Amino acid sequence: MSVTHPMYNTIALVVRPNTTGIEEPVRDVINFLKQGGYSVVLESDTAEHLGITDIPSMSVQGIGERADAVVVMGGDGTMLGIARQLAAYDTPLIGINQGRLGFMTDIRQEDMLPVLGRILGGTHKAERRTLLEGRVMRDGKAIFFGTAVNDVVVSRGAGAGMVELSVDVDNQFMYNQRSDGLIISTPTGSTAYALSAGGPLLHPTLGGIAMVPIAPHALSNRPIVLPDSSEIVIELKRGKDITVNFDMQTFASAATGDQIHIRLSPHTITFLHPEGWSYYNTLREKLHWNEYPSTDGKI
User: Fold this and answer.
1) CA–CA separation, 3 vs 64, rounded Å?
2) 292 contacts: CB under 8 Å, gap ≥ 6
3) Domain co-membership, 151 together with 227
4) Does the residue 295 lie in any domain?
5) Which of 92, 109, 128, 252 has the most CB within a 10 Å radius?
6) Cα 125–126–131 angle (5° rounding)?
7) Greater confidence, 292 or 72?
8) Same-domain status, 62 and 41
9) pLDDT digit string (tens) for 227-253?
10) Same domain as 211, residue 109
């Protein structure tokens, strides 16, 4: 959707730590926002890493409760981390790319100030994304809980053999699987690890959950897309050093007999994109999707 009236007053800034040369662009953004009449706050870790003391700082919880929007300067990993933490507050996120790929941090640094001004002025495209939530159950008790914007990944340890998994969906047996692991992905995550493992691209607005095996023993074990209303239970039958990863940022160690329960999170996240933003254009630019190989000018 596009809107054309101001909506935001307090803007929080989150910056990827240890980014060479980031101090000057951060100051540019802060000064631009202050000159525009916005109240600016920094996420606590950002303020500490950059040594900025003249701008108020607050915790992620404080940002969720008080900020009208969050500007993230970093890569997709930075965006994933803060998006999971802010999901319960439904705070809109704006990404300025300081990473490599920039699927979710889609504003180029050289364009950031005029584009940011237009977005905060109300001229933007808002896009809502789903998340997954999962818990690791052992002997009937939850030992770990996590959320994921991209994916939940059950995988074997380094140097270990295959894992054996039993998968149920909505209390119905789906299959037993021997593989290096299993990726349970949101549409957002379909362009991440799931894609490299041979999974399908899912449009972000699609209500689906992709299950993509990692190096399955059976060649017939193919990815499948489930309704996002599905309740997925993965039981660990055999394997060593098994881990359960949420967006590859938080993880739990699991053991034979554990169950991982995965479902759609009740929360969503909202990205604010520049007007004219296109998911298909992002695929072409970031993944070189559907490009013909070079023919040196010959057809």
Assistant:
1) 22
2) none
3) yes
4) no
5) 92
6) 145
7) 72
8) yes
9) 999 999 999 999 988 999 999 888 888
10) no
Question: Is the domain of 154 the same as that of 105?
Answer: no
Number of domains comprising the chain? 2
**157 part of a folded domain:** yes
**What is the pLDDT confidence band of residue 39, given thresholds at 50, 70 and 90?**
very high
For residue 109, the SS3 value is helix
Judgement on whether residues 172 and 243 belong to the same structural domain of the protein: yes
Same domain, residue pair 141 and 243: yes
Local structure of 246: helix, strand or coil: strand
Q: Is 77 assigned a ligand-binding role in the annotation?
A: yes
76 known ligand binder = yes
Measured CA to CA, the distance from residue 238 to residue 17 in angstroms comes to: 39
Would the pTM of this model clear 0.85, i.e. be above it? yes
Which residues does the annotation mark as catalytic? Answer: 76
Q: Do 147 and 187 fall within a single domain?
A: yes
d(CA 262, CA 184) in angstroms, rounded, equals 8
- Count the residues in the chain: 299
CA distances from 157 to 152, 239, 259 (A): 16, 9, 17
Tokens of 219: 């060649």
To the question of whether residue 247 is assigned a binding role by annotation, the answer is no
Spatial contact of 144 and 21, defined as CB atoms under 8 Å apart: no
Range list of β-strands (E), the chain: 10-15, 39-43, 57-58, 69-74, 93-97, 124-138, 141-148, 151-155, 163-169, 172-179, 181-185, 208-214, 224-227, 232-238, 242-246, 250-254, 259-274
- Domain CATH number, residue 30: 3.40.50.10330
Residue 116 annotated as lining a ligand binding site: no
